[in-house]
Fold:
Amino acid sequence: MKKLNGILAGMMLAAAGIQGATDATPAVVQEKVVVTATRVEMPVATVGSSITVIDREQLASRQCATVVQALRQVPGVDVVQQGGPAGLAAIFIRGAKSEHTLVLVDGIPVNNPIDATRAADLSQMAVENIERIEVLRGAQSTLYGADAIGGVINIITKKGQGPAQGEVSAEAGSFNTFNEKAEVRGGTGKVNYSAGASRQDSSGISSAEARNGNTEKDGYGRTEASVRLGWTPVEEVEASGTVRWNRSNFDYDGMVNGVLADTDDHADIESLLLAGEGKAKLFDGLWRSRLGGSWVSQTRDDASSLSASSFDSLLQKLEWQNDLYLGKANILTAGLEAQQESAQSTYEAVGYVDQFDRQTARHQSAYVQDILMTGPLTTTVGGRVDKYDTFGTETTWRAAPVYDVAATGTRFKGSYGTGFKAPSLFQLYSVYGSKDMEPETSTSWDAGFEQSLMEEALVVGATYFENQFDNMIDYDYATSRYGNISKAESRGVETFVTAKPAKDLTVRVSYTYTDTRDDATEAQLLRRPRNKVSAEVAYAFTSKIRGGAGLVYTGERQDLDPSTYAATPLESHTLVNLNASYDVYKNVTLFGRIENLFDEQYQEVMGYGTAGRAGYGGVKVIF
Structure:
């Protein structure tokens, strides 16, 4: 904590010093527009939900290689990864489970039906061709159904516009890591396009903790490509399509007598996303209708000298959304959805075969939402009905008001809602599950404020939240089956400060306190720290030279010892990253970064290794 306090103090003193040395007027901040919170584009000042937007400028300045890296500094979000960049990544929002986070790509769900809990793994998703990431916290089942008890992460890709432009970059660094990327985009009044591709290779680190004597490096490679096309034959009609493909292969370590150790395990993962939609503006834009469909396939093959396994899933969805603009102060949204998912898996070892035959589940949904703007007050109220062929019907609702006092730059906001999490195919149909499984349910609320000062040169905010999770599905070691056996709760506070003390300087600091509890044991929930601090400084030294620093402090948290199944504390840790870039020419930029500057030794998951100090550098060319 002394190191953490010193670094934070240094950042703030540096900001204050630069502020005192310049009379530059803060740049006017253009109001951000978000879509995830309400399914329609709304200024962030009219959204009662807690939402964080990571835009492409932040992704570029931080030099993020993956979406996981981008999420680490978001308030209320904890990222836990098993054994380096290729390891499984779990996202915890406000103390909820990782499977309580719904992950979308351009509004398309990508949670994996073959995963035992139906969680999404973002470890293999690169940031190429991404416009922004919207992180919505709190129960969102009213608009998004199951999997959204904790929140929603919506990854929005770039839409081409204007003259054709592109960029290519190459990077090399520690652990024999090489990254190559390329993007191109553009558009006219009728057609727009964007495409990106990347390749990453690395010798990696040992998945099993090196300090326990594990020295074998677990390498990985990843190839990703995406295309987004749009067509606007007339002003009132728009059609678009998206293709996103990813293939990864990597080594990892397995358990030997209850201890993670060097083994010869290897995995190949491939995913393919296809989606299309059509939009129409009718009656002078008073009725806006959207019809879309998606097809997401995910496969994984694992192999070692002792066993082999394969996993295959398919998620298909159709949706029809209608927005009615009833005057200038009322937007009524109603939609229908139909979804089908299927999955199968096979595990083979010497003298043993575990076959999970293909199973399919379907459900239909209907939702309605009303946004009413009356002066400084904007109120969003909605309800939803989901009908599943596996367990029946669930009904959820939500309200999210915000009161904007423009004269003082103050916003008061809050939300209250219910949510549910459907049991996965594995929990229903495998030998470890039960067809009588019921959905998890939740009740969540939050309340907070944001205050802008000095023409938004300084913005501060705080939000208090509470979540109650009932009928939770967990693995029962006594019966060797999944069951609705748990209840839990979480509560806490998210705070942040964003400052622009000078035209070319931005400082962001956030602190999150999360108190979680298992109602049966009264123990802290695993892998959720009570305290988290993130800080970031970005500064343009000249028109050509830019630099920044980022810090993430993660407090002590509990994890499960795989050899004894007992909860064991993991120590707190502080990670500091540096980045810099230099525009050699108008279209050529050199860049570099240092990760884990102080070579912190830590674990995010018990027994798994993490990278020490690492450096990377490269060049980007824009054409």
